[in-house]
Design a protein that fits this description.
The protein is mainly alpha-helical. The chain contains 17 helices and three strands. α4 crosses α7, α12 packs across α14 and α14 packs antiparallel against α17. It is extended and about 95 Å long. The mean pLDDT is about 90.
Length: about 425
Amino acid sequence: MAESPTRSLHMGAAADARLRRRYAREFRFKVIAIGALVLTALFLVGLLGSIVSRGWSGFITNEVRLDVHFSEEHVSVEDPGSGNVRLIVIEALQRVIPNATERSDMRALLGLMSNGAFIEIRNMVRDDPSLIGQTVEVWVPVGSDIDMLNKGYVDRDLPEDQRRVDDRTIGYVDLLREAGDMRTVFNRDFFTTGDSREPELAGIGGAVLGSFWMLLVTFLVSFPTGVAAAVFLEEFAPGKKWIDIIEVNINNLAAVPSIVFGLLGLAVFLNVMHLPRSAPVVGGLTLALMTLPTIIITTRAALKGVPPSIREAALGIGASPVQVVSHHVLPLALPRLLTGAIIGMAQALGESAPLLMIGMIAFIVDLPSGPLDAATVLPVQIYLWADSPERGFVEKTSAAIMVLLAFLVVMNGIAVYLRQRFEIRW
């Protein structure tokens, strides 16, 4: 009996060979896909490992304990803020290290201290003149080189002329450590202070506040504007052809490089409207322009996700088109709509290029109290510190990146939670 055509096509040696080649191609595809996944994970782990290994020490700092005696010899009762704080600090250190009597020894002792320590002690007696004549225990920050030495970033085995800390200073540091007058603590000031030329005093408090004011302006401008534009285009726009043209342009705007929006903000908000330079309100308006296409696109997608039967049912019981949208469509689309808005805000938080164009790269020490005050933001603060040559700013840069990544993870986590918690599956 002759073999049927179907049997001859799918059976036999030729069919087995085709099947083996097909399985081999599938196996190679799986191997390539898994290899790409592993390579991506390795890159991500390497990146995060590099940032954490460099930045974890930015969250701790070193302090030295001083028994400060505010003698009337060095501090005037009439003008306590103009006292000789350096002599007060030297005398306090000499109580722990009594053999440091030469001028070079005193210079080495002063080199242990941060400039912030002198300011802190001066402010103490200026704010409370009753301290004159008393001895007070205070913990004050050490200088950046001593901080790096205690964190292990200074190699003690190198010859003295090849490191930033000499042998005598290292001896003083060891004496203070053994006496319990030097400690390593959590660097709370890193989160509460603004920028500084001194690495041990620099903090991200000003940048975090600047980012908050900027994102607030961005949200207040872009969210209602973007939602209103999307609702009109999706629900009320009369024609189809010109909507397609607008949609194409919105999609193109979403792909425009962010620095172009910075140039637009520079031309419109600074050169034409003369808004204050380096202010969060300008950064917020610029980022609102950049975020608008994203919010419009995600809002239209959320509105399209609401079944037409909801609209038809509302119209059937006598609701007006505006009531259909405001009472039924928008509330049902709100979870996906908020998710898109949060992702847009997270994207705006990580942007630095447009902010550099509008002057938010300025050195700002004070904390901003409103959107009109001069301020900087986290990405720009990271950019500024990354350009500084001091070793102390290297750990500050990585620590600030960790804080920025934490903010982005939290914002994306909120978006995922909102989507999973409130999304309605039709």
